[in-house]
Amino acid sequence: MRIGVAQISTRAGDFAQTARQMVECSERAARQGVDLLVFPMTALCGASSVGPVDREGFLLDLAGCVLGLAEDLACPCLVPVLTDMGGTSVPDALLIRDSQIVPVGLAARIEAMAAAAQSEPVDERSGTLPELELAGARLGVAFTYDDLDVYVDYEYDVDVIVFLSGYGFAVDDPSSALGTSLTEGRFMADAEATGAWIVGVGSLGCYDAQVFCGSSFVLAPWGELAAQAPSLEEALLVCDVDPSAEGPLEAPLTPEVYDAPLMTWSALAAGLAGTVRQLGAGGACVVVDDTLASMVVATLATDALGPTNVGVVLAGEGGPAAELVRALRIPAANVEALEL
After folding, report:
1. Cα–Cα distance, 42 to 207 (Å, whole number)
2. pLDDT confidence tier of residue 170, bands split at 50, 70 and 90
3. What is the pLDDT confidence band of residue 10, given thresholds at 50, 70 and 90?
4. Tens-digit pLDDT profile for residues 132-162
5. pLDDT of residue 58
6. Which three-class secondary structure state does DSSP give residue 237?
7. 276: in domain
8. For the chain, what is the domain count?
9. Helical residues (DSSP H) of the chain, grouped into ranges
10. CATH value at residue 138
11. Per the domain annotation, does 61 fall within a domain?
12. Quick one: which H or E segment has residue 236?
């Protein structure tokens, strides 16, 4: 089975533009013979559901977008969405192929409810996660760490688990950095415990004050890294997954050594750049004095936006603050010094 991950940055709710990106990615994937192309959790709906006032219109627009995708996507695709159940936001994924749309999470819940109605009660968690056949492989779909735990704890007969991460980067959660932090996160243990390939699908960009770093990956059941997309960059990751393979891989990748401080700084810079873009601004202005906090903010803004897009109000003409502004190569025309 050849699986693809479309690691793309989108603007949540901009269905027309996002649909164009998705169709373009599907065309590229189809040319590479991909059997299933997976999109990130935030691609269409962002990281959280819209408020009650806007929900009906949003869902109608989403439905129209999905119907259009069903006609235009060039290969089978798994498209995550946020649905509403009794006022609660619930993640799901739509399997779109041959112009047909199947909500795999909802279908699994309905099947579990039907089975429970005809038999003795069972643990609610044990039968509510998706299992589907595609291209000679059995796929499971997980949305949370709890879902991964269920695949570990219960006897699901799956060859591949697609993890659609909805977790923004968090300093105290190495697994939120996905492929960048495999040596520190949970996923190698998940692969070995389930005996399944793990396909980690990372969202990319800034959504609802959360930063998603990408770094999608494919892990073999015995823990070797088969493929990885870069952090903080768009990418189309394509990897062959063989359910019958027992390892080792012919050319495994070496997992990165996780650098938490660097990842944290990069996420902060990406988040600031994304926020500025969302506000429709071309740059930012910062006040810089000799305090550590103001100098850190100036450095971060310069890394995120570039020195020519940063304006500085400098408290005083000398001292550490002035030296920092010169070191950051912020143009003199962008600097206004105030005598205090």
Report:
1. 8
2. very high
3. very high
4. 999 889 999 999 999 999 999 987 889 999 9
5. 82
6. strand
7. no
8. 2
9. 15-31, 52-72, 104-117, 145-153, 187-194, 260-278, 292-305, 319-327
10. 3.60.110.10
11. yes
12. strand 235-240
